[in-house]
Amino acid sequence: MKTFRFLALALALIGLPAALVAQDAPGKKKIAITKIAATDALKSRMAKQGVTLSLESVLQALDSQVYDRVLNTRRFDVLERSDADALATEAAATGSAFSFNQVDYLLTIRVDSFNDRLDTRKLASLGKTVSARTIELSAVAKITEVATQRAIASTNFTVTKRDAENRSASQIEKRGEASDELLIQVVREMAQKIASRAADAIYPARIIGKRDKTVTINRNDQSGVKVGQVWEAFIYGDELEDPDTGEVTREEVYVGTVKISRVTPQNSQALIEEDSGVDRGAVIRLKDDVGEEEEEE
Length: 297
Hints:
Elements: H1 2-24, E1 29-33, E2 37-38, H2 40-49, H3 52-71, E3 76-79, H4 81-94, E4 105-123, E5 128-145, E6 150-162, E7 167-168, H5 181-202, E8 207-211, E9 214-217, E10 230-241, E11 248-263, E12 268-275, E13 283-288, H6 292-296
Parallel strand pairs: 1-3, 1-4, 2-4
Antiparallel strand pairs: 4-5, 5-6, 5-7, 8-9, 9-12, 10-11, 10-13, 11-12
Helix pairs in contact: 3-5
């Protein structure tokens, strides 16, 4: 009998640390994305230019793409957009705090600039005129911590894409009615930037493993990480208090750089290029990006 009790106690003690770890392990944060809208000034300008349809297409496409990109960061539990938007509007009208099923963060996006134009050039030597479509999109994304109603991040993003193929005057289509391919590229890039910013603001990218000169980073192939990118690595130091505002932050000590060598659906790997203490747990931030052509090479 005593032997049985001893074995039961031993098994309980063995299981205790694992239970504590499971209890203390952080879970995914819940984020709600409100319906994306354009500013009143932009809507008025688009109406005067007669391209309201193009703007509405952008907003609808961006709404779906942002939801998809945020979900695929695998950092959050993403809540339904339409419900979140309705409740946020109701809360603003009544002056109460927004609450959506104990959501942790609210992502609000406003498109403040959109241009869809044809740039025309005269080629005197060839005796003809060519035009290329250019689309510019600008948006402000704000992340609010619902519990405190405090904005923890607000960033302006701008994406510009120019059609690679020039068209002769006889091929020019009405602005806003041409192929949607360029528009889709702009929307996807904007959505990726917003999703990456949301993930980095709440869950900074970290090194979660190290083997010799190779490190593993907790960012997957849906997070905007590309082979060839260079990231800077930091470790947290002492707490720092701003004497003017009283805000307390953590010192960030630079410890080197890593270059992305492989990207998978689970995470990414990088080779250490400069090492002054790069190790597991270090926070990393993008230093040098690569273009699509460089990534393909």
